[in-house]
Amino acid sequence: EVAYSQSTGQKEQLSRCLQRGIRRVQDLCKVLQLPRVFEETAVSYFQRAVQHSAFHLVSLEKKELLGGCCVFVTCRQHNWPVTMGTICSLLYAKQELFASVYLSLQKELELSVPALSLADLVKTHLNSFRLFQHTDDVPAPFVEDKEKVVARTMQMVELASETWLVTGRHPVPIVTAAAFLSWQSLQPGARLSCTLGRFCKLAGVDLPPPAHLRLKEFLEILLRMASQLAWLRVFKLDKKTVVKHIGDLLQHRIFLLKNAFCQEDGEEQGAEAPSEGSPSSPPAAGGVAQEKGGKRQREGGPRPLLPPCLINPRKRLRTAAPSPSDSAITGDEPISDSEIEQYLRGPEEIRAFSKAKAW
Amino acid sequence: MDADSDVALDILITNVVCVFRTRCHLNLRKIALEGANVIYKRDVGKVLMKLRKPRITATIWSSGKVICTGATSEEEAKFGARRLARSLQKLGFQVIFTDFKVVNVLAVCNMPFEIRLPEFTKNNRPHASYEPELHPAVCYRIKPLRATLQIFSTGSITVTG
């Protein structure tokens, strides 16, 4: 006698949930136009994840997101730039839930996920912009050559990396703000009057809320750099007019950054020759020290190159330093009745409270 | 930073979470009625009680399990937990203060320098994980100590575990 499960291969069949999930993963890969090898990797991750004890009994909603997370992890491992926002919008998912599933997946399956490359993200993000071809919605002066915009945006994003605008921030608003400034600077005459909101509308992309702040930070950096460029000192530049000179500023950015921002160890400013080929990329691998530039800003002089949150710190409630009496607590002190009385209601108060609450 | 330079770093404990059990059933309605500084969350079946000294918040379940948060040292946490147990005793419950355990300590520390998070993450895999789309800090796990550090670009570090 042979058991039914052995004769029909019942155990080898995939469950309906797993089949649906695999189909979803494959569909996602097709929508994102990913190579075949990505699909195979994502499906294998999904099969592993669904069979893992941490995900086997989760809700269907989470299992749907699990497929998206597997695709996301696969893309990141192959340096294929895709953001969580893209996957969430394709799955109609809440980003918070997606994030929790993604972090669990990374931890339980012990997956190593490399960082998202901003340079690659610039290219994919700008692919979705509708400003590179003549259409009815986009006025002729606003149409621009894609390669020029991409090249300049990459330089702006590198500048952002060097000036602490990228670290700790969501990447998409930075790319959006950089793309806007790059696009404006290529034909400033016709485009200076266009706002960031209108630019995003014309390009057919969402305007991420932090993009306005990133734009403001970019312009502040550019104005400081412009103050060090000899032939721009005679002009009284502001946040509008500095955009016309972005090309020059980016060309000499290493020299200008060195002169516009000071280091704590008191390097000489201004008279230095342009950098002798020191890398424009951020300092030493190891991610270790930059001496703190100090929070003070010298009037009229170069300001320290610090993260913006250190230049303009928000007010913080400071916890009082522990007093000597607090530090003498052992945890086993006797507790008197009078100390406890303050946490109990009196009989009249109880009567009044129960009348008011009517439980 | 030089290996030779002597820079004192202040590590400030900002929160200590502890649990204990009362070994008796607790009537949450009675605690809400007769206790002061109490919030009764009927929908989730718990009561929040706040003490002034030490400044802690206790979450009380009818099973007798109590979680205390807000203390700034382990000793303070124990003192606050005992005070809470005494308050429950005064309300008429047969409380026995048992199974006291500190489950989490949160501390903050500031480095005297900024940190480039992408480079830091690249050089500290697999312990470090950095997802700027989700959180502005690097999450660094030390498995043997069961500790998690949140490292910010400003040099501020939060340690939990």
TrEMBL record, chain A:
Residues 292-301 have a biased composition (Basic and acidic residues). Residues 117-254 form the BRF2-like C-terminal domain. Keywords: Metal-binding, Repeat, Transcription, Transcription regulation, Zinc, Zinc-finger. Residues 266-343 are annotated as: Disordered. Residues 271-287 have a biased composition (Low complexity). Pfam families: BRF2-like_C_cyclin_rpt. GO terms for molecular function: TBP-class protein binding; zinc ion binding. SUPFAM superfamilies: Cyclin-like (SSF47954). InterPro entries: BRF2-like_C, Cyclin-like_sf, TFIIB. GO terms for cellular component: nucleus; transcription preinitiation complex. One of its GO terms (biological process) is transcription preinitiation complex assembly. Belongs to the TFIIB family. This is BRF2 factor. It comes from Jacana jacana (Wattled jacana).
TrEMBL record, chain B:
One of its GO terms (biological process) is DNA-templated transcription initiation. InterPro entries: TBP, TBP-like, TBP_dom_sf. Gene3D superfamilies: TATA-Binding Protein. It comes from Jacana jacana. SUPFAM superfamilies: TATA-box binding protein-like. The lineage of its organism: Eukaryota, Metazoa, Chordata, Craniata, Vertebrata. Keywords: Cytoplasm, DNA-binding, Nucleus, Transcription, Transcription regulation. Signal peptide: none annotated. One of its GO terms (cellular component) is nucleus. CDD domains: TLF (cd04517). GO terms for molecular function: DNA binding. This is TATA box-binding protein-like 1. It is found in: Cytoplasm; Nucleus. Belongs to the TBP family. It holds the Pfam family TBP.
